[in-house]
Every structure is written in structure tokens, then in C-alpha cells.
Write a structure and sequence with these properties.
Elements: E1 4-13, E2 26-33, E3 38-45, H1 54-63, H2 72-81, E4 88-92, E5 103-106, E6 117-118, E7 124-125, E8 134-135, E9 140-145, E10 153-154, E11 160-161, E12 177-179, E13 185-188, E14 192-197, E15 200-204, E16 206-209, E17 219-221, E18 224-227, E19 236-239, E20 243-245, E21 253-256, E22 260-262, E23 266-276, E24 280-292, E25 296-302, E26 305-308, E27 311-314, E28 320-322, E29 324-328, E30 331-334, E31 336-337, E32 345-349, H3 352-393, H4 399-427, E33 440-447, E34 451-455, E35 458-461, E36 466-473, E37 478-482
Parallel strand pairs: 16-18, 17-19, 18-20, 19-21, 20-22, 21-23, 22-24, 23-24, 24-25, 24-26, 25-27, 25-28, 26-29, 27-30, 28-31, 29-32, 30-33, 32-34
Antiparallel strand pairs: 1-2, 2-3, 3-4, 5-9, 6-7, 8-14, 9-13, 10-11, 12-13, 14-15, 33-36, 34-35, 36-37
Length: about 500
């Protein structure tokens, strides 16, 4: 039974009293639940033969002010069946519908554990753990569904029963996040990876790990990556920003839209590779494939395929290129190239860009010659107009006609002056000044025999060791000249 209040009302109702002196045959009492949403009727028979009438109970409820939720059918059956020993639920109020609490919905997966990728054939790549969740600046990380209003109920006396309002919630947020003006969204204030720890949401612009191995899986991050240890063979690290590795890189794949720095070097084991839009700097590079759109810096390149959009610079006590193929567009700078054991070492200066620039220079020079002819012609036109204007001013024409003709000639002069200014502007555009000798190979020590040199369209095979020399394409052949102090400044 519901919790009841102390309301325990009773009334003696007399049924069939033809004589005034006849006493009551039963007594009616009721209980009201504490929330006033339920009414219980109790009947006490004073005469075992007495019958309780439907109207008597209805009148009794009305006298008690009970007007809502009366169960008329149940009362009628109760009187007909005469189950007076049982308690009758005579009225039910209407329960209030409580408001719904607000909730936070996360727009990324906050579940813990690794999330393996499964291919169509059911194969699982255990290296792709998908631990990094990349987000762009202003991406929505989570949002609030506001509390919903409830609905009032009604008690048995016809009074409203207030609903419980839904509770509000607030974001628990950390670095690199902000709340929208309406207070309903949490967004990223920078590109990075979103994380959920200790029930807090935050964004990291730099992703940091100790090692890249089975515990982390492959990394694909929208910002910069810092790896305090090593990158193990078979794993990959990709980043929109820089990648800095304080340990060793084994046979792994590294890709960066910024720079790559490897403190202890890379042994690619014949399968490791790096691609970077910025510089690549590594203590050494061995048995690996490297492509940089800018410069490559190292102490040693050993049996590697290396390409730089600008220069390859070897520094340090060894500063050696041994075996493999090294290609740059501006300069290759090393102390030692090749070795005594004579592994074939290929050194290439790619002059494709230089040749394209030379074509551009030739076209520009041809255009300039044409522009100079046009400029001379326009200057002649301008002189003729000046002469005509002088003639008109000194003629016997009336002033009105003089003014009309002079105005026409003045407009023509302005037009020609504008054309002359445009031609002069085009002529002052600076021509490229790239010198073919600036695309060079500098060897501060020994370039060993069996080194193959390619500079543009010229090839040269070193058959005897070369020392302290510069090699470049002079347009007709590959020139080999001693170094001077300017060549050593980089």
C-alpha cells in the first residue's frame, strides 16, 4: 500500500432507515496517500445484512472534496459484489511527468580500448589502433541536449501537482577548447587530437608518445608529433606538422607536411622511407628511401635512395655518402663520396628546374625585344601628336574648332602615355639570374673512383680519386675545379 497520511475520516451512513430511531448499518472511512494521488475507502458493517450503495460512496467522496480521478466503475462493481472486507481504491490522481535531465552527447568515440580496422575479408590490421582522433579548428567536440519540460499532475482534490524540472549539465573541458555563444556546444580552438580523460575533453596540438610500436599502433595526426623513443619496423607516422623523433627509426614509413628530425638516425632495413615537405635531418640514414621537397641534412648516407628538392648537406667528422643514389637540385655537399671498397655511388644534380628557367629567360628576352620596338613606335606616335597640337594652336582655325581638335588630340596623347607606361613596367620586370655553376657538387675530402656523377644532361664516371673539388656543368661538359673559400660557406 502507498504511504498514507494521517487522514482517516469516517462517517456513519444509514441505509434504509424507515424509522428514525433505527441506528446506522455501516460506517465509511477513507485514507489519502501522502502525495494525495490515491484514495482508499474502508467499510465497517454494523449490520451484517447491510448493503452499501454506489450513491452513498459517491456522496461521501463529494463531501470529502474528492473530485478527480474517481473510479466510478470500480465503485459500482465493489458495491455489487459486496466485498466490504476489502479496501477499495476509489480515486487515482494523475501523476506528474518529470522533466528530462539535460545530457552531453560526445561527437567522437570516448570508449576505451583499441579500435582495430577489419578489412572485407575479415583480416585485422593490428598496427592501426585508431588511437588518434583528429579534429579541425572549430570542430564540434560535444554538445548538450537541453533539459525537457515535464507536465503537471492533478491530485484527488483537483489541485495541480508540480513536476520536477530536468537538471542542467555543464561541460568539463580543458586546453584548446571553447564553448559556443549559446552554451550548447564545445568546440576545438585549434587543429589537433581530441582526448577524453578523467571525464574531461581537451585538444592536443602536439601528439606525444614514448615509442611507436604495438602499444600505440600507427599514428596519423593533424598537427605535430613528438616521439621520445623509437619508431619500430613496420609502423607508420604521418603528420600535418613536424615530426621529431628522439630515438631511432627502423624499417618504418614517415610522412610529414613539415620537417622531420631524427636524433639517433635511421636504418630503414631496405623498406623504411621518409617523405617530407620540409627539411629532413637525421644523424645517419642507412638502407632507406628519403624524399624532401627542401633540404636533407645528415652525417652519413649509406646505401640509400635520397632526393632533395633543394640541397643535400653532409656535416660532421665523416660527412660521407657511401653507395646508393643521391639527387638534389641545388647542391650536394660532403666530405667523402664513395669508399675504398668501391660500392657504386650515384650522385645527381637535377637541372630540370634550371633548364625551365632558362627557357623562361629566353622567352622573356624575346618578349623584351618586341616590347622595345613597340616602345619606340609609341614614342614616335607621341612626338607626332605633340607636333600636330602645335600646328593646330598656330593655325587660322576659329577657336571653337581649335578647341574640339585639341581636345581629341589630348585624349589620344593620354591613351598613348598609358600604353608607354605599361610597356616600361613590363620591361623593368627582373629576369631570373640563376647561374648554372651554382648547381654543384662539393667534396671537401675524397670522391672515390666508381662514383657516377650526373649533372643535368652531362654524365661523368670517376676513374681516379678526386680530392677537394667542385663539380658542375658548364654547359658543354662537367668541370672539376679546386675548392675555394667561398665554396666551403654554406
Amino acid at each position: 500500500m502507498d504511504n498514507l497520511d494521517n487522514i482517516n475520516h469516517s462517517s456513519d451512513i444509514t441505509g434504509d432507515l424507515p424509522l428514525q430511531e433505527e441506528g446506522p448499518k455501516y460506517a465509511v472511512s477513507h485514507l489519502v496517500s501522502a502525495n494525495k494521488l490515491k484514495v482508499y475507502i474502508r467499510i465497517e458493517l454494523l449490520d451484517k445484512q447491510a448493503e452499501v450503495k454506489y450513491d452513498d460512496i459517491m456522496n461521501y467522496l463529494s463531501e470529502q472534496g474528492i473530485v478527480y480521478g474517481i473510479r466510478e466503475e470500480d465503485i459500482e462493481i465493489y458495491c455489487k459484489v459486496k466485498e466490504y472486507s476489502k479496501e477499495l481504491v476509489a480515486a487515482y490522481g494523475k501523476d506528474p511527468v518529470d522533466g528530462k535531465d539535460a545530457e552531453i552527447v560526445y561527437d567522437f568515440d570516448i570508449s576505451e580500448g583499441n579500435k582495430f580496422e577489419e578489412s572485407e575479408d575479415g583480416t585485422i590490421n593490428f598496427r592501426n589502433l585508431n588511437n588518434v582522433i583528429n579534429v579541425k579548428k572549430d570542430a564540434v567536440l560535444c554538445h548538450i541536449i537541453p533539459p525537457l519540460a515535464g507536465k503537471d499532475g492533478t491530485d484527488v482534490y483537483g489541485n495541480p501537482v508540480k513536476y520536477r524540472p530536468g537538471r542542467n549539465v555543464s561541460f568539463n573541458y580543458g586546453n584548446n577548447t571553447y564553448i559556443s555563444e549559446d552554451g550548447l556546444k564545445l568546440l576545438a580552438s585549434t587543429d589537433g587530437c581530441v582526448e577524453y580523460k578523467n571525464e574531461k575533453v581537451f585538444v592536443e596540438s602536439v601528439y606525444r608518445v614514448n615509442n611507436v610500436d604495438n602499444s600505440t599502433g600507427n599514428i596519423d595526426f593533424i598537427g605535430s608529433v613528438v616521439i621520445n623513443g623509437d619508431v619500430k619496423a613496420g609502423f607508420s607516422v604521418a603528420a600535418k606538422g613536424d615530426i621529431k623523433i628522439r630515438g631511432v627509426v627502423e624499417g618504418a614509413y614517415i610522412k610529414s607536411d613539415g620537417e622531420v628530425v631524427i636524433s639517433k638516425g635511421m636504418n630503414g632495413m631496405g623498406k623504411g622511407s621518409i617523405y617530407a615537405k620540409g627539411n629532413v635531418t637525421s644523424k645517419y640514414i642507412e638502407n632507406a628511401s628519403i624524399v624532401s621537397e627542401k633540404c636533407i641534412y645528415a652525417e652519413a648516407l649509406i646505401n640509400s635512395d635520397v632526393k632533395a628538392g633543394e640541397s643535400i648537406i653532409l656535416r660532421g667528422s665523416n660527412a660521407a655518402i657511401i653507395g646508393g643514389a643521391s639527387q638534389a637540385e641545388d647542391m650536394i655537399y660532403a666530405k667523402t663520396i664513395g669508399s675504398k671498397t668501391n660500392p657504386e655511388t650515384n650522385i645527381t644534380i637535377n637541372l630540370t628546374r634550371y633548364q625551365e628557367e632558362q627557357k623562361s629567360i629566353s622567352q622573356k628576352q624575346k618578349l623584351n625585344r618586341q616590347l622595345e620596338k613597340e616602345l619606340a613606335a609609341k614614342n614616335n606616335e607621341l612626338k607626332e601628336l605633340d607636333d600636330k597640337m602645335d600646328l593646330i594652336l598656330n593655325s587660322y582655325m576659329d577657336n571653337e574648332n581649335k578647341g574640339t581638335v585639341h581636345k581629341q588630340l589630348l585624349f589620344m596623347k593620354i591613351k598613348i602615355n598609358n600604353e608607354i607606361s605599361e610597356i616600361e613596367r613590363q620591361l623593368t620586370e627582373i629576369l631570373p639570374t640563376d647561374n648554372i655553376a651554382d648547381h654543384k657538387i662539393i667534396c671537401k675530402g675524397i670522391m672515390y673512383s666508381n662514383t657516377r656523377v650526373t649533372i643535368g644532361w652531362m654524365k661523368y664516371r670517376v676513374r681516379q680519386d678526386i680530392s677537394f673539388s667542385k663539380l658542375y656543368n658548364d654547359g658543354d661538359d662537367i668541370s672539376i675545379v679546386p675548392l675555394n673559400s667561398a665554396d666551403l660557406e654554406i
